[in-house]
From TrEMBL:
Residues 149-179 have a biased composition (Acidic residues). Residues 16-144 form the Plasmid pRiA4b Orf3-like domain. It comes from the Bacteria. This is Plasmid pRiA4b Orf3-like domain-containing protein. Residues 138-179 are annotated as: Disordered. InterPro entries: MM3350-like_sf (IPR024047), Plasmid_pRiA4b_Orf3-like (IPR012912). Pfam families: PRiA4_ORF3.
């Protein structure tokens, strides 16, 4: 069985990552793949806070056993069978930085693919949003401009039409008389 997971940031439409992972993939293998794909810091403790279909926390998985197992011993298939359909994945527990990981169900296995694998990416990595990046779809409607409706995009033609009335050429009538 192969499961499909969507990674998102709360309230941000301009970011998404979609992964496919085999049911035998551990949370640790999934963590390593996400860390590599999204440039998460390597020196941080991580935590998977598992939630059921109602959004209630059902388990916490970390490097150390927090009561439900460690991330290197718990598989995605085990969490799926327990009804854990989403995770809050803390990639930086010290600063409480996280992404939402939601299982979208089973997909057909693809021959020759090593799981987990990134199958879709939208927008820059999460750190860019922390640094002030705003995706087009996250802009307020009044800030969005369509290139077709914006007259300012055609600056090349406008330069020829404008007369420069502020400058005046001055000619010296006696310039060539002294030869």
């Amino acid at each position: 069985m192969v499961l499909k997971y969507r990674v998102s940031l709360p309230g941000i439409k301009g970011f998404a990552r979609v992964y496919e992972a085999s049911e035998s993939s551990t949370l640790y293998a999934f963590h390593k793949q996400m860390r590599a794909d999204m440039d998460f810091p390597q020196d941080q403790m991580v935590l998977f806070k598992a939630m059921d279909g109602d959004g209630k926390v059902s388990a916490r998985y970390g490097i150390f056993d927090l009561g439900a197992g460690t991330i290197d011993s718990v598989t995605l298939g085990q969490t799926w069978k327990k009804g854990e359909v989403s995770f809050l994945y803390f990639y930086d527990t010290v600063n409480a930085k996280s992404v939402i990981v939601t299982c979208e169900g089973e997909v057909e296995p693809r021959p020759g693919v090593v799981y987990p694998v990134l199958v879709e990416a939208k927008g820059p990595n999460p750190i860019e949003f922390e640094n002030g990046y705003v995706a087009f779809e996250d802009l307020p409607d009044e800030k969005k401009k369509s290139p077709e409706s914006d007259d300012d995009w055609d600056d090349d033609d406008d330069a020829d039409d404008v007369r420069d009335d502020d400058t005046e050429e001055i000619y010296d009538e006696n310039e060539n008389d002294g030869d």
